[in-house]
Amino acid sequence: MIGRQISGKPIDHAIMQMQFSEKRASNRIKSMLVTAKLHATVYKNMDSSKLIVCEYCPIAPPRYLLETLN
Fold first, then answer.
1. Close Cβ partners of 39 (under 8 Å, ≥ 6 residues apart)
2. Mapping DSSP to helix (H, G, I), strand (E, B) and coil, where does residue 48 land?
3. Do 19 and 30 form a contact (C-beta atoms < 8 A)?
4. 41-70 tens-digit pLDDT
5. Where are the alpha helices (DSSP H) in 1-70?
């Protein structure tokens, strides 16, 4: 599971994990991590070397999508 791979890791390490992951969701998660890092450094004046991924919470797709996928 991707959440276990990146939870508790520094954000740069998590981005690198997603860069080399072959899972389908890894590209989207990587772009979210890059956006979160940029937002934290530019708007919140946080040090990027101290950013850590606290937890990863996947959001389930809407129910009608689940029904069409089955």
1. none
2. helix
3. yes
4. 999 888 888 899 988 777 755 555 444 343
5. 2-6, 11-20, 26-42, 63-69
Per-residue model confidence (pLDDT) at position 56: 77
CA angle 27, 28, 34 (to 5 degrees): 90
Residue 52: strand pairing partners:
10
Q: What is this structure's pTM?
A: 0.77
Distance of CA 61 to the CA centre of its chain: 16
Q: Give the Cα separation of 66 and 44 in Å (integer).
A: 37
* CA distances in angstroms from 49 to 27, 46, 68, listed in the order given: 22, 9, 43
pLDDT tier, 15 (very low <50, low <70, confident <90, very high otherwise): very high
